[in-house]
Write a structure and sequence with these properties.
Mean pLDDT of chain A: 89
Order of helices and strands of chain A: HHHHHHHHHH
Largest sheet of chain A: none
Largest interface: A-B, 62 and 63 residues
Oligomer: homodimer
Helix content of chain A: 55-70%
Strand content of chain A: under 5%
Chain lengths: 238, 238
DNA sequence: CTTTTCCGGTCAATGGCGTTGTCATAAGGT
DNA sequence: ACCTTATGACAACGCCATTGACCGGAAAAG
């Protein structure tokens, strides 16, 4: 049912729902984010979303073609959140680091939504703006186009992949999350040096290190290697 | 319904199903993997699995407490697959590259199961063996313990995060996956150079590059930066 | 101010899903 | 050969997303 959805800017007649609320794509997306945040990812069903909005579930299809369409809107909203907190500094490395960390932080703020959204390409406004910004930073730094695109790809995919990974951990039920962390203390930290010398030698370090996200270091390594490549490009073609 | 499931080693009576097949946990897991592989992620439902087995759907619950229990069994099977294809070469960089790519490939072969496996710390035999191997490679290369653990963490998380990311993309319903890829051709490749100069300048490169996984480059960048750090460590303390 | 249009919320129904309570029967130990 | 019980089959429950028909009322036209 394509013709069911009227594009947002052309909407004119807003009729209050039976229970009094006035719907809009924006209201639906933010309510969905609230549902995900409060009750976990199983909570996001059309029926529950309808109930939370005080509307019939099918009313949502007046604003989104399908639940997948809604999901893409949620994904773009998250990207928008990430961009709100970021400012350019002029230095390409710290700019990219800032973008990566902002993205990661925005996704951590809504782990359940991040899990569903991090894997999608929306092509919507916020995503498009982010792509343009990042490509601009890389090309401005002097990366040739092909290299800029390759680094862009690695940078963005890595950021999204870690965001989803850490979101998944955060979104686990409390018991499961605690149990997974405990594996490092209860299992790995007790292995014998005879059978597992390398684990035994580094057990204490592992226990503390694995509590944190691996993203900051992975990001810094990526940026350092990219800088190295840039240096060689600039040396070759001055 | 816990008491419904009898642990596999204690099973004695194997009754053939109405259509003649004899069930077992192993048969169910491999049939599920085949279903996933042949017909995509929507194909794995208890009902379809029952049909594929020539059994009533509810018979599956004699072997697994729930579909999640079944999926964990599938995931466990996958971890074994991941380690079968790798051999040590003696060079730490190509060893790690090989492990990363093998992991990625094994997960890509069964994306739907990979999505569930990538986020968990099991502490079981196969995982433990992998941790020991990777730490051994890093410490053998000369990384000091703290650095070895940090690099280990970044390397493994990166590999798992990308495995899950690319698995998620592959596990999307066909329509959604095609739509996401098309966004690069239909949306980004048509943006005006006036409003989006950097995207417009690199549109052709983006369209081709974004079809592939960003992991190989991200992995190489991580390894290159790690090698650089190692060089500085060895120079400082010969 | 009245009339017409048609957006957009509601209702009811469809076909799918995971899961479970109950029953019947064949396999295995005795 | 008998008895127990494991295990497969059946039917039902309550979810789910999605859709077509309906119609009230707000906006637009006169």
């Amino acid at each position: 049912m394509n013709d069911r959805v009227v594009p947002e800017p052309e909407r004119r007649r807003r009729r209050p729902t039976k229970q009094g609320t006035v719907l809009s794509a924006e209201v639906i997306v933010s309510t969905a984010l609230r549902l995900l945040h409060q009750h976990g990812s199983e909570a996001l069903t059309v029926r529950r979303l309808g109930a939370a909005l005080g509307a019939d579930p099918s009313a949502i299809y007046r604003y989104f073609h399908s639940t997948d369409d809604l999901l893409l809107a949620i994904a773009d909203e998250l990207i928008g959140h990430a961009q709100r907190d970021w400012r350019a500094t002029g230095d390409w490395q710290s700019d990219l680091r800032g973008i990566g960390l902002c993205l990661h932080a925005a996704y951590q703020a809504h782990p359940q939504a991040a899990l569903l959204a991090a894997y999608r390409t929306t092509g919507r406004a916020n995503e498009t703006r982010a792509v343009e910004t990042i490509l601009g930073i890389l090309r401005g730094a002097g990366f040739p186009d092909q290299e800029a695109v390759a680094i862009y790809h690695a940078f963005v995919d890595q950021g999204l992949a870690f965001a989803a990974q850490d979101a998944a951990a955060a979104a686990l039920p409390d018991a499961a999350r605690a149990a997974d962390l405990d594996v490092w203390r209860r299992h790995y930290a007790r292995l014998s040096p005879e059978t597992h010398p390398h684990i035994a030698a580094t057990a204490r370090l592992l226990v503390t290190d694995m509590r944190r996200s691996g993203y900051p270091l992975a990001l810094d390594l990526l940026l350092a290697a990219a800088a190295d490549r840039l240096g060689r490009h600039l040396a070759a073609r001055p």
